[in-house]
């Protein structure tokens, strides 16, 4: 059981059930994508980063910046809107820059949110819910181990990732009853923490619609 508890991570994780974490993640994702203000969406992105770190998920800032930079770069290759600079034959336009930043922020923000709100012991009711939960668990397991895959050891890293993922799935299946028993409900502290997290994210979206920033 010690290994399973190790997968759960910090006290933050132990206080909040997988179901409540997932449902709050869905609400936060909708609020994040609906926020019309780019600065407030950036603030939500930073909150997601903090939530993922609090959940015990290690982050690699350089990798995140590299992915976001790549998304912005490829958007700039299709210029539209006001020209703000010219680099050789390539005009840099405000419309393409803003669209690239928005896409990069959205993609990485949702990835961070999934790390914070999807856990390996997630259970959803019904056949469709079971399939969705299994897909989310696999996705979470892959993102947690993506550091194993590097350009120099692509095949070996992929093989190690799949082996570890298979072993974890077998362990979870073996002790499914135990997991459901110890993490079926959030504690009072967990609900307060989750309510505060939701209030911050949804509140920033409300401010975006009110145009206060």
Describe the protein's architecture and organization:
The chain has a domain at about 1-120 and about 185-210. It has helices at about 1-10, 10-15, 20-35, 40-55, 60-75, 95-115, 125-145, 155-175, 175-180, 190-210; strands at about 85, 90-95. The protein has a two-stranded antiparallel sheet. Mean pLDDT is about 75; it is low at about 1-10 and about 180. The chain starts with a helix and ends with a helix. A hairpin with a 2-residue loop joins strand 1 and strand 2. Helix content is about 75%, strand content about 5%. The protein contains ten helices and two strands; from the N terminus they run H-H-H-H-H-E-E-H-H-H-H-H. The protein has about 210 residues and is mainly alpha-helical.
Structure, briefly:
This protein is mainly α and 213 residues long. The protein has helices at 2-8, 11-15, 18-34, 38-54, 61-76, 94-117, 126-144, 154-174, 176-182, 188-210; strands at 83-87, 90-93. A two-stranded antiparallel ribbon has the order 1-2.
Overall shape: it is flat
Residues in helices, as a percent range: over 70%
Give the biggest beta sheet.
2 strands, antiparallel
Low-confidence stretches: 1-9, 178-182
Distance between the termini: 49 Å
Beta-strand percentage range: under 5%
* Order of secondary-structure elements: HHHHHEEHHHHH
Average pLDDT reading: 76
* Helical stretch tally: 10
| Radius of gyration based on Cα positions | 20 Å
Number of strands: 2
Tell me the strand order in the biggest sheet. 1-2
Determine the structural class based on helices, strands and strand pairing. Answer: mainly alpha
